[in-house]
Amino acid sequence: MSRTAYRTCPLCEALCGLELTLDGDRVTRVRGDKADPFSKGFLCPKGATLGGLDGDPDRLTAPLLRSEGSGHVPAGWAEAFATVERRLRDVVRRHGKDAVAVYIGNPTAHSIAGPLYAGALVKALGTRNFYTASTADQMPKHVSVGHMFGDPGAIPVPDLDRTDHLLMLGANPLESNGSLCSAPDFAGRLRAIRARGGTVTVVDPRRTRTAALADRHVFIRPGTDAHLLLALAHTLFAENLVTLGALEGRVRGLEELRALVAGFTPELVAGVTGIRPLEIRRMARELAGAERAAVYGRIGTCTQAHGTLASWLVDVLNVLTGNLDRPGGAMFPRPAHVATYRRKTPFTTGRWRSRVRGLPEVKGELPVAALAEEISTPGEGQIRALITIGGNPALSAPGAGRLERALTELEFMVSVDPYLNETTRHAHVILPPPRPAQTPHYDLSLLGLAVRNYVRYSPPPVPLEEGRPGEAEILARLALIASGAGADADPMTLDEAVVADTLAKAVAAPGSPVYGRRPEELRKQLGSPERGYELRLDMMLRLGPYGEGFGADPNGLTLAKLRDEHPHGLDLGPLEPRLDEVLCTASGLIELCPPSFAADAERLRADLGGSPPDGLVLIGRRHLRSNNSWMHNVPQLVGGSNRCTLQLNPSDAARLGIGDGDAVRVTSRAGTIHAVAETTDSVMTGVVSLPHGWGHDRPGTRLRVAGAHAGVNVNEVTDEREIDPLSGNAVFNGVPVTVERVG
Questions:
Q1: How far is the C-alpha of 59 from the C-alpha of 57, rounded, in Å?
Q2: What is the pLDDT of residues 714-736, one digit of tens each?
Q3: pLDDT tens digits for range 150-161
Q4: Same domain flag for 153 and 262
Q5: Nearest Cα to Cα of residue 423 among 715, 55, 130
Q6: Are 41 and 57 in contact (CB under 8 A)?
Q7: Distance, CA of 50 to chain centre
Q8: How many domains does the chain have?
Q9: Spatial distance between the Cα atoms of 609 and 272, rounded to a whole number of angstroms
Q10: What share of the chain is helix, strand, coil (3-state, %, to 5)?
């Protein structure tokens, strides 16, 4: 007999509600949840195929152990955890705690388990070798807001539903569904801006689907967004268009910024960016003249050599036009699970450095661009063991060919992943999390980026099989193993320890809803849930800005109320100004011109007045029916427009003697790949484009659909030596390459 269940889609950042039809434990149909107050029934092609992903026959259902000569063979959970404990203990005993590294991939941010338990694992290991997909994606934004506002998590998002003018750089939300900006039906929201008389301008080296929907698309040479943004700021100062509004008296460094941008005139920047001076001035005037405006930059602005500067300057423009922290501008969401009374210490970086290149730590992480060399370079502190959680760095990391070779040198590797893929084929132990239908969902990471305050909890609609651990239990057991508690320790002991510590801090914090109370009394109110993640989430919601505060506000949120009374989610209202809650710099002001940013801007000054270098540069691109590498094994999501082709402009193709469909060789300093050419005028001249996440042609994997649509791994030609120095983020856009026809 069929039944219906509701949940949030876990496949991208849009937070869409789903209505699942199940026959027994099998998902037979997926539709948009029309009762969800945020997504209102919107559904993209990825979400529509959740049933296919959930029922993928290639998903692992039991642990695998790698055996010499036999490949990967099934094992029981007790044997798998015991193997992890024995092998990790041996590596640490012989080489020290920094010999173990942890890598966390993009899918982990779309789970409840990753944000709750991965940090405990890293802390228990005591290693400084911690890496995530953030340094292949978004770290420049964390660094820029960390220095400006004091908190690396305080990322302003465009108030899409109230803005009159949106300027987007390096973002393609019609295919990504939004990034660092959670907004179901992003396309509908952009159309609504135009319908109410507003304007949308897209700056991008490609005429993407998003650019085609906008009022205006402006081509820009890859890697020059920071130059453009400085010229826009220059114009605002030069034409007396700076209006701080409510931010008057809340900023520091305005005059230093004025002096910094003085030399970046539209005329000098035009030769670098390929954008005419008149167009640059027009963009600045429109931004300043709009009643409510927002500037939004995304992955194209982060994954370049000047990623932090570009990310910083996006919010500089929001400040200079008075549009930061005001309705219709760029605003800070208020997630239900994050307590607003907690005081943070001002952001800093470089507390330690990588062993080989001396690259600085950021947010407790080292750049993923350094992972291969830290494994391969002998010496004290060399990585000998690796734990990967929901990541596929063999495809997603820069210089992926070198990293793949490095993985073969490890003494031990354990992966938490549902697939035997390009990365996990090197693992000695694979611990697969359950299917999506067996997994709870609460967006701990993404609700802090939503364009409207909103909250939703989705319990798992299908129970786990007897003896089958959930993802939270898998990660908790790994953390307990790392702490020395052992493979047989009760995972709930970790959750109880976290709850006890959090409540002790809450009762001692002035401004807390439980200030002065007894932690033991509060713990009793939480009851005895069977699942540790629900215990912790209930505590977080009660202490959060909409919570019931353990009796302080009887109408406030608890997990039970959210789950039982609001199964479709709860709308908490539009974004509201909250700079006072967010700002935690040492000065107590917005740091408009951090000294390290001003110093790094000298790299940009050297380009002024010159011509761009000859030759081609490579950029990535998004696919609507794909999210990095982890959905290419679903038949409905491969093929069609999801083509792993090298796009190039017809004029470049003609000059090189390349025709549509020709085989081509793409070469960079880092390596060479072969691809199929696709000529299109949607790419500006001098630019070629390949999507990322492909290259499913490796032996030893179990990805039948992906293997039949292998594509090529673009990261075999990206360069792990090229990073943004302020954040350590890898450079994936603007990579110099040569392209030639093969045969």
A1: 6
A2: 999 999 999 999 999 999 999 99
A3: 999 999 999 999
A4: yes
A5: 715
A6: no
A7: 20
A8: 4
A9: 7
A10: 35, 15, 45
